[in-house]
Every structure is written in structure tokens, then in C-alpha cells.
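Could you help me review a protein record that somebody else here produced? Here is the record exactly as it was handed to me:
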Amino acid sequence: MKIKFLLTLLACSLLVHSQDDAAAVQSMYHSSLSNGMSYAWLDHLSNNIGGRLSGSEGAERAVEYTKSELEKLGLDKVWLQPVMVPKWVRGSKETGYFMANDQRHEMNICALGGSVATPEEGLTGEVIEVNGIQELKDLGADKVKGKIIFFNRPMEPTLIQTFESYGGCVDQRYAGAMEAGKLGAIGVVVRSMTLRLDKYPHTGSMTYGDLPPEKRIPSAAISTIDAEALSEALRNEASLKLSFKQSCKQYDDVESYNVIGELTGSEFPNEFIVIGGHLDSWDMGDGSHDDGAGVVQSMEVLRLMKLSEHRPKRSIRVVLFMNEENGLRGGRKYAEEAALNQEKHIMALESDSGGFTPRGFSFDCSDEEFEQVKGWELLFKPYLIHYFEKGGSGADIGPLKKEGMVLAGLRPDSQRYFDYHHTSIDTFDAVNKRELELGAATMASLVYLFDKYGLKNKTSLPIKN
């Protein structure tokens, strides 16, 4: 009889907790959708500031603006964390064309971030098309020397998870110039990383590794339509020539900042939950999806927490990271300072997959912690949030990883993300207000649950160097 009574008492207790949590989650969605700030913040960030490549005036203005807006929220602390970042400038608009059947075909082209410039008069050479870095290596220096290498491996269209498709071919963008330079090539053009056939070239980071300066060759992306046209022309005329011109330049590192705001915990102030996105963007558009959306959603999480009746038990920080796009300096700096201060971070959540309709989260955590997370799925079901899977989290919070901690990434619908990623059309008009606000509420709801219940495994340790 006693056991039956205790089981009934436990069931009633769980029901009350479930009802309280459902009400709290509902409140997050209601507030975000009825009087949210994320869309207005993104409007200013995108349309009044624009592109925010690290080291640029736009990045500096974004730091000032977001710090000011966080201060208006009445947080317990707001501060700037200095970090040295690379400064790369695109220069004049790039041009490119190829000659086929005595006809000049103009290309939509842009320099890859970190590339060296072409000679002032431009660069011209015969083209060799390859389907990836291994195919390039198989050709060898004898065939590659003096040529312009055209990397034309497309994103795989049959993969539903488009980030997997992106990951399957982005190495040619990132390391293609390094590998081609080792073999004596004079330049590289890369098919843009998108599933769509269009006229927009997609920039992105690239590396020369430890190549000496004399072997560093210009690297650019061309639109998918131009990649198709170039490939077709090469089938008919293997010795055709391509020309392109870019005036980009790498400068010395400059000082910038991570922007940080904190609600200090009422019971466990030395346990930290981090929410973040990266404040920098590429320079061709205004970075609304990548990653203005993640920035304003992360700011909105703290605003929603302040509006709710839930007083945080743990210290909740928003971190707007600088330099994710071409260095990850901000993420590394935050983790370094956290280690020096022996801070105990129990959970970190990043939004860096665009401002589209939220589908759920991916989690980098132990099976034990994931069991707790799966127990919260029903709370998200009314909002059509169904994706709770183990997997990756986010680039900027990755350096924080330690045993026992939970890292999570917001996972919006990704089918349109690579239409805009790193392009001139990643602009404010491409973001839907309601989808953005749903994402912010989804993040705030998960943070609420982790703050309320903490880690299932209580043995996690502070970050160490």
C-alpha cells in the first residue's frame, strides 16, 4: 500500500513538473511571436551595418551596436572580450571570362577569402577540369604545372541533410589552391558550393597551409551556371583559355571583440550556459542568414528569459563570436579565457544554420545526457520540433567541449540555406520574420530546461587548458 502511494505521489509530481514546463515553453513562443525583438535587431544589423567581415568597419560597428542593445536589456553584465583577428580585403570587383569557339563567355566570379591577388593585368592560362583534390594529385606536376585548375565536384543532390552534401565537396574550395600550388598550377577556380543552378558565386574561406609565398596562387569561385558552361566548353575544346582578375589583399591582424552579456544565476552562479552565433559575416551580402540570424536569436534568448517568470538558476551568457568565417579566433579566445578562469560550462548552444523554420537540435553529448534531452521531446511537439539527434553542434562552441558537457546546435530546415550561403543575396529580404522568431523561442525553451534541471551527470569539470 505504501509503495502504491509513493508511486502515485511520484506520478503527480512528474505531471505538475510537466505542466509547469509546458507552460514555460509556451510562454517563450508566445513572447517571441507576439512581441519579439529578433527581426528588428536583424533589420538594423543587415540594412544599417551590412557585411561584417572580421577586421572591417562593418564588424566594428556591429560590435558597438550589439553591445548597446544588450545593455538596454538590463542584463547583469555586458562586456567586450578582445581578440586579434585577420584582416582580408576583397578590393575591386573581380572579373573573369573564358574563350571558346572564338567566343568570349563572361563569368560570375569572386575571390575566395584569404586568396592572394592575380597580377594587376589579370591571370590567363589553359584549364584542367578535375572532380576533386585526389584527381588533381593523380594528374601529377607534369600535367598541372602552368595551368589553371577548375574544381568542378558538385554538392550531392540526393542527400537530404544538405550540410552533409556541403561537407562532401568543400575541401576543394578550402584546400584546392594549396594542393594545386604544390604542383605548380598558376591559379584555381572552384564551382560554388550550392545545390542550385544560378548566377551567384559563393565565396568562403581557403588556406595555403605552410606553402611559401611564391607558391601561393589566386583562388576564386564561379557560379554553378558558369561551371556548367565551362565544363561543356572543355569537352569540345580541351585547350581553351580562362582569364580572371582580382585585387584582394591580406593585412596584418587587427584587434576586434567578442560581445558578451550575462544573466547571473541565482543558485549556481558559477555554472554557465552559453548561447551564441557569430557576429562576423562575409562581405558580399549583409550576412542575414549567416549568421545575423544566429546573433539576434541568441540575444533574444536572454530577453525572453528576462521576460519570463523563471529566474535563472545558472548563469546564462550570450556570446556573439567574432571571426568564425575565416579563422575561428573568437570561439577559441572565449574557450581560452574560460579555461584560464576555470569556469564550469555545463551546456552551450549555437545557431549558425540560417534563420529558417526550426526543426530541432543536434547534440554532442554522452548517452546519459542525451537520454535526458529525449525526455523533453514531447514539450516541443506542439511546435512541430521533431529532430532530436546526436551529432555536431557548432564551430564557435566546439573549443569549449569537455567531458560531461552538452553542446547543441539549432537545426532549421536546411533545404534553402546553400542558395544564400556566402553570396551577395544573403540579405535581409531572404529571412522570414516568423521563422526567425520560432527559432529564437526554440532556443530559449531548451536553455530554460537545461537551466532548470542541469546536467544528468553531475561530475563535469571546469574547462582546462
In short: The first strand starts at residue 77 and ends at 89. DSSP finds 14 helices and 16 strands in the chain. Residues 5-16, 459-465 have pLDDT under 50 and may be disordered.
